C-alpha cells in the first residue's frame, strides 16, 4: 500500500485536521512526495478514488488547488498494517506501527491481531481444514543444510526435515534403525554393511538409494573432491577420527564403509544431526530450502516466515500437525513487549518457544529442562601460564560458577561440573556433602 505512505506524508506536511480545506500547489506536493507534478496528479486521483481526500484543482496559472483530508491517519495506518499482516509480513507490520503511531490504542489493536494468530488452530485449506501451529521467532534461519547446522534451533529443525541412518534410543541406551533397516560388521570391526529401507522418498518424491547416502557421507568425510558445498581447506576434523578408508555403494540399497582401524564411534557419528541424509542432486537454494526425508518438508524460508508442511509420503508415522508457520518477528529480541501489550497477555521472550506462565486457565503446559552449559576452554598447548594445572584450578575457583548462577538467575539450574548431566549432579552432591562436613553441619561417619 504505497498510497498509504503518500497519504501519511501529505498529512504530516500539511498538518491540518480532517474536513479542513487547505490551499496547496502541485509543485509544493511534488517536493513533499519527491516526485514529478505528473505523478502527484496520479497519487491525488488514487486518494480520491479511495475517498481519503477531496481535491479542487486550481484554475489557471498561479491559482492554488484545495485539498481536504477525509480519513484519519490512524485509520490509514491500521489498514496499511492489516494489509501487511494479511500478506504474512508481520515484522513489517510492527515496524509500521512503531514508525507512524505508537499510541496505546493502535499498538493494542495491532498486537492483538498478531497475538491471536499464535498457537494451534483448525484453519480452512483448499476443500477442508488443517491443524496449523503458529509460533513467533526472533531471527531468520538461513542455514538449514545439516552440514552447517550448529545452533539448537537449526538442529531441532533438522530433526523435522531429515533422517539419519541410525538413531540413539536414550531410554534403552541402544542404537535403533532409521533409514538403515539393518547393519552388520566383520569380526575386527573394520568393515560395516548398512542395508537401506526400500521405498523411502525425499520431499521431491525421489527415492532414497545408497548413492544418496554415499554422497552425504563423502561430504562429511571430505573424501569427495567434487563436493561443491565445502571449500577445499575446510576440514571436518571430527570425522577424521573414524579413519574411514573407503565408502562404496555395493547395491541400490546397500552401502559398505571400510575403516583403517576399528572404531566404536561409527554409529554415534552416523546418528548425529550432521549425518542427516540429503539427496545427491541439490538446488541453488539448498541452504534455506533443503530437501530431506523427514516428517515435514519446507515450503518457505525467508526473512518473514518459515513454513513446514507434513510430508504425506513419510515412511514412518505421519505427523499429527498438518502445517507449522514460524513468524520471524525480530522485534522480540531487540525490544521486550510490555505487560498487556499482546492482547492482555504479556510475552517475556527469554526463549523462542517458551510457554509463558500466565497461560489461559485450563491450558496444559509441558516443561522440559534443556541440557547445556557455558564453558571456558583453556589451551594448554600454547605457551603461557595456563600450562600449569595449578593455575587452571585457581582460575576455576576464582570464577565461582555457583555464585554466577545465583547472581544471574533466570532459567539457570546450577553450576555444571561435567558435560553429562548425571555426572554433574553426582559431583554437585559430593561437593555439598564435603561442604557440610567441612563446616561441621553433618557427621562424616553418617551413612547416606
Q: How is the main sheet built?
A: 5 strands, mixed
With helices defined by DSSP (H or I, 4 residues minimum), what is the helix count? 14
What's the arrangement of strands in the largest beta sheet? 4-5-14-13-12
Instruction: Specify the helix fraction band.
Output: 25-40%
Whole-number mean pLDDT: 80
| CA distance, first residue to last residue | 72 Å
Identify the overall geometry: extended
Q: Structural class, from helix and strand content? A: alpha+beta
Task: Extract low-pLDDT stretches.
Answer: 223-235, 333-358, 444-448
Taking Cα atoms only, what radius of gyration do you get, to the nearest Å?
31 Å
- The SSE order reads HEHHEEHHHEEHEEEEHHEEHEEEHHHH
Q: Please state roughly what percent of the residues sit in beta strands, choosing from under 5%, 5-15%, 15-25%, 25-35%, 35-45% or over 45%.
A: 15-25%
SS elements, strand count: 14
Brief digest:
With 448 residues, this protein is an alpha+beta fold. It is built from 14 helices and 14 strands. The chain has helices at 2-14, 26-33, 37-50, 73-86, 90-100, 104-115, 152-161, 210-221, 237-240, 266-270, 331-334, 389-399, 401-408, 421-438; strands at residues 22-24, 53-56, 65-69, 119-125, 128-137, 166-169, 174-177, 180-185, 191-196, 244-251, 254-259, 296-301, 305-310, 323-328.
Task: Describe this protein's structure.
The protein is an alpha+beta fold and 448 residues long. It is 32% helix and 18% strand. The strands form four sheets. It has a five-stranded mixed sheet, with no helix packed on it. The longest helix is centred in the C-terminal third of the chain and has 18 residues, at 421-438.
Amino acid at each position: 500500500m504505497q498510497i498509504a505512505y503518500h497519504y501519511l506524508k501529505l498529512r504530516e506536511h500539511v498538518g491540518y485536521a480532517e474536513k479542513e480545506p487547505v490551499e496547496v500547489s502541485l509543485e509544493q506536493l511534488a517536493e513533499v512526495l519527491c516526485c514529478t507534478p505528473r505523478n502527484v496528479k496520479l497519487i491525488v486521483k488514487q486518494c480520491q478514488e479511495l475517498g481519503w481526500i477531496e481535491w479542487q484543482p486550481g484554475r489557471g496559472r498561479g491559482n492554488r488547488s484545495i485539498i481536504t483530508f477525509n480519513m484519519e491517519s490512524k485509520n490509514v495506518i491500521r489498514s496499511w498494517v492489516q494489509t501487511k499482516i494479511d500478506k504474512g509480513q508481520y515484522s513489517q507490520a510492527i515496524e509500521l506501527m512503531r514508525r507512524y503511531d505508537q499510541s496505546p490504542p493502535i499498538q493494542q489493536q495491532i498486537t492483538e491481531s498478531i497475538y491471536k494468530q499464535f498457537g494451534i488452530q483448525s484453519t480452512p485449506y483448499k476443500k477442508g481444514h488443517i491443524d496449523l501451529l503458529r509460533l513467533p521467532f526472533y531471527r531468520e534461519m538461513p542455514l538449514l543444510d545439516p552440514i552447517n547446522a550448529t545452533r539448537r534451533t537449526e538442529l531441532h529443525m533438522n530433526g523435522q526435515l531429515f533422517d539419519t541412518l541410525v538413531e540413539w534410543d536414550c531410554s534403552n541406551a541402544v542404537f535403533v534403525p532409521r533409514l538403515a533397516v539393518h547393519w552388520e560388521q566383520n569380526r575386527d570391526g573394520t568393515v560395516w554393511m548398512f542395508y537401506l529401507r526400500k521405498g523411502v522418498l525425499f520431499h521431491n518424491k525421489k527415492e532414497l538409494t545408497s548413492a544418496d547416502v554415499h554422497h552425504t557421507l563423502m561430504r562429511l568425510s571430505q573424501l569427495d573432491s567434487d563436493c561443491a558445498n565445502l571449500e577445499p581447506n575446510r576440514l571436518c576434523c571430527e570425522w577424521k577420527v573414524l579413519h574411514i578408508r573407503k565408502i562404496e555403494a555395493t547395491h541400490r540399497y546397500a552401502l559398505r564403509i571400510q575403516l583403517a582401524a576399528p572404531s566404536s564411534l561409527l554409529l554415534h557419528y552416523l546418528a548425529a544431526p550432521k549425518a542427516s541424509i540429503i539427496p545427491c542432486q541439490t538446488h541453488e537454494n539448498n541452504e534455506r530450502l533443503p530437501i530431506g526425508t523427514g516428517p515435514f518438508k519446507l515450503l518457505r524460508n525467508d526473512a518473514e516466515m518459515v513454513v513446514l508442511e507434513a510430508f504425506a509420503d513419510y515412511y514412518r508415522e505421519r505427523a499429527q500437525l498438518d502445517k507449522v508457520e514460524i513468524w520471524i518477528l525480530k522485534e522480540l529480541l531487540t525490544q521486550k513487549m510490555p505487560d498487556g501489550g499482546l492482547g492482555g497477555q504479556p510475552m517475556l521472550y527469554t526463549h523462542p518457544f517458551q510457554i509463558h506462565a500466565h497461560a489461559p486457565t485450563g491450558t496444559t503446559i509441558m516443561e522440559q529442562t534443556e541440557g547445556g552449559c557455558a564453558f571456558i576452554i583453556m589451551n594448554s598447548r600454547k605457551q603461557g601460564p595456563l600450562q600449569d594445572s595449578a593455575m587452571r584450578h585457581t582460575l576455576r575457583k576464582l570464577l565461582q560458577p555457583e555464585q554466577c548462577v545465583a547472581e544471574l538467575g533466570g532459567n539457570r539450574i546450577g553450576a555444571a561440573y561435567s558435560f553429562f548431566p548425571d555426572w554433574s549432579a553426582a559431583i554437585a552432591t559430593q561437593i555439598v556433602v564435603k561442604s557440610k562436613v567441612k563446616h561441621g553441619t553433618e557427621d562424616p561417619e553418617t551413612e547416606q
